[in-house]
Amino acid sequence: MTPLWTSHDAATATGGRPTRDWQAAGVSIDTRTIRSGDLFVALSAARDGHDFVGQALEKGAAAALVSRIPEGLASDAPLLIVDDVLTALEALGRSARARTKARVVAVTGSVGKTSTKEMLRAMLSGQGATHASDASYNNHWGVPLTLARMPAATDYAVIEIGMSNPGEIAPLARLARPHVAMITTVGAAHMAAFGSLSGIAREKGAIFEGLEPEGAAVVNVDLETTGILTGCARAAGAKIIGFGESPAADWRLSETRTLDETTVVRASHGDQQILFKVASPGRHFAQNALGALAAVAALGADPVMAAHDLGRWAPPSGRGTRERILLDVVEETFFDLIDDAFNANPTSMAASLDVLIHAKPVDGIGSLGAGRRIAILGDMLELGEDELALHAAIAKHPGLKAVAPIHCVGPRMRALHQALPLAQRGEWVETAAELATRARALMDPGDILLVKGSKGSKVSLVAEALRRLGQPAAKTEGTE
To answer: What's residue 465's pLDDT?
Structure first.
């Protein structure tokens, strides 16, 4: 089997000095998940990775990428010594990108980039060897790590690119050198750092600066900021491909039917009519799937086959996974949990609430008689000076009257709690831990509960407490 990296190749890429010859089958930054044969990269973040080099080698790491020799190592320990570990990781990523003939698509957006990345992985895997980032590895170390893990024989690569501050996307896009770059949407995320929606759009549009010559920009044409995105694409010399509901869209969404566990989508591309299913409820999933199909076609792959293979996709854990929690096996009582507790901003909050509003609870199996749609909403973080108004505005969401009660978690969500009609107002608590202790009182058999909030709100504690009330049956898919 061809190694991913040899000591010679890694030294050539980074300018580092190997202590002896070695071959690595993978690249890892975490000793908890490292596999035998991996190259361990001793990054320094919250903790210094050099402190874990010995542990990595004991677990079977082929070598370690370091900027100094840690104390206590054997004199013949396999190392690659470099001036700076992060810079060396970037160099490995750059070299891996240069040595492959893969067609590369990069994805960014305020909402949906991880789900869309996974859709693209599923769509392309049936048409060639496909490499994509793990989890949400989309930042200054996640993108180079994803590239460094890419085998030379890759046919298609899907790179997720994120940001939290200005100036982060363009360098990562230049490192990835995509043939196609897609922006799912632009929403009020990280407003504290950017100050305005237009500022966020310009940062997202910087992804086009990394496009290969004659590259394609896949852009959502239904946005307030579409003009900014297309302007960035033109400045980069990209071919612009639009997707959305607008008549101007190259890939036009005609109709969506949201069912309990799927979304049926009717769309068109020129004179071609397209019908496909997304195995999760939500109009936003339909929109992103259509953009992904446009990206697949721009890569030169078969969009018809890709639409069929979309059935392989399911939302990542904590991104809207819907599961049935069985409370009593004999009486067959249960409730449904939509766990969307990984991240939140106004756009993704609206999308998740839409899914809950369209979901159907089960009547007649609980003590209350009628099943309810219940929302447990945690703070949306990094929204800037308008954060309280943005939280209160959730009360005006169309169709929200179908949801009751609505429990609110965190100091920012108090603004929503105060804005809700009394009939919908559930509990307000300062911390998620307070509500998690009363999980059993939050639900009744037949209910559907949505748990949504930014990761920092720790509303996932409530989702876990609800999950522990019973044994989950087979999972179905939900929102992002």
So the answer is: 95
- 113 has binding-site annotation: yes
Structure tokens at 310: 């979309």
Report the side by side order of strands in the sheet with 79-81. 17-18, 79-81, 63-66, 38-41, 26-28
Question: What is the pLDDT, as a whole number, of residue 479?
Answer: 42
**Residue the block writes with tokens 């994509």:** 132
Smallest Cα–Cα separation from 263: which of 285, 247, 241?
Answer: 285
Identity at 307, one-letter amino acid code: A
3-state secondary structure of 352: helix
What CA–CA distance (Å, rounded) separates 292 from 286? 10
Here the tokens at position 10 are 């890694």
At position 38, the amino acid (one-letter code) is D
pLDDT tens track for 241-289: 999 999 999 999 999 887 777 888 999 999 999 999 988 777 888 999 9
In angstroms, the CA 302 to CA 445 distance is 45
Q: Is 114 annotated as a binding residue?
A: yes
The pair of three-digit structure tokens given for residue 302, joined into one six-digit string: 């078969």
Domains along the chain with CATH numbers = 5-84 (3.40.1390.10), 100-312 (3.40.1190.10), 321-476 (3.90.190.20)
Q: Is residue 111 annotated as involved in ligand binding?
A: yes
The full DSSP string for 73-101 is --TT--EEE-S-HHHHHHHHHHHHHHH--
- Residue range 153-175, pLDDT digits in tens: 999 999 999 988 899 999 999 99
Read out DSSP for 342-364?
Answer: S---HHHHHHHHHHHHH-----S
- Phi (first) and psi of residue 410, to 5 degrees: 110, 160
Distance separating alpha carbons of residues 480 and 477, to the nearest angstrom: 9
Mean of the pLDDT values across residues 220-234?
96
3-state DSSP assignment of residue 211: coil
pLDDT of residue 342: 82
Q: Supply 17's token pair.
A: 């000095």
- CA–CA separation, 48 and 31 (whole Å): 12
Instruction: Please state whether the peptide bond connecting residue 315 to the residue before it is cis, i.e. omega within 30 degrees of 0.
Output: no
Report which of 63, 71, 65, 98 is spatially closest to residue 84, judged by C-alpha positions: 65
Q: Is 109 annotated as a binding residue?
A: yes
